[in-house]
Amino acid sequence: MAWVYLVTAGILEIIWAYSMKKSDGFTVLIPTIVTIIFMFGSFALLSLAMRTLPLGTAYTIWTGIGAVGAFLVGILILGELASPMRIAAASRIIAGLVMMKLSSSA
């Protein structure tokens, strides 16, 4: 169950990062509220996952899901640049996440 909590926490992190961007520095009410709610949910689920998973594994996977997910949202929804170097960097993050998962005993 810890992995379900962790992946869900990572997905919520993507949502709050996108909402934070849309909040325009917390000046737009609805995206600001969405950011706060999803941020709380993401942290709560991360803390549940950390009951079982090692800190290094849980935190690395959580931030990696958020980083790669936000990168994809930026490209697919916000029209940000998808240069070969940015794609290569995101690919390396994904490779690191896979290695972290494979090396975890939990």
UniProtKB/TrEMBL annotation:
Q: Which domain of life is it from?
A: Bacteria
What GO molecular functions are on record for this protein? transmembrane transporter activity
- Membrane-crossing ranges are 27-46, 58-79
One GO BP on record is: xenobiotic detoxification by transmembrane export across the plasma membrane
InterPro entries, sorted: EmrE-like, Small_drug/metabolite_transptr, Small_multidrug_res
Gene Ontology cellular-component terms for this entry are: plasma membrane
Q: Which family does it belong to?
A: Belongs to the drug/metabolite transporter (DMT) superfamily. Small multidrug resistance (SMR) (TC 2.A.7.1) family. Gdx/SugE subfamily.
What name does this protein carry?
Guanidinium exporter
> Which source organism does the UniProt entry give?
Phyllobacterium myrsinacearum
| Lineage of the organism | Bacteria, Pseudomonadati, Pseudomonadota, Alphaproteobacteria, Hyphomicrobiales
